[in-house]
Amino acid sequence: MNLRTAYIATPLLVLAYGVIRILDGLDGSRGPGIAWTTGHLAFIAALALFVPIFLDMRRRLGGGVLPTVTVVAGIAGIACAMAQFVIDVVVGFLADDNAGMSVLFDRVQEVPGVELLVYQGGPFLFYIAQFVLVTHLAVVKQVKYWTPVLVMLDFMLPLMNKDLMPLGALCLLVSFVQLARTAATPVQGRHILAA
Question: Per the UniProt record, which residue ranges are transmembrane (predicted)?
Answer without folding.
Answer: 34-55, 67-95, 124-143
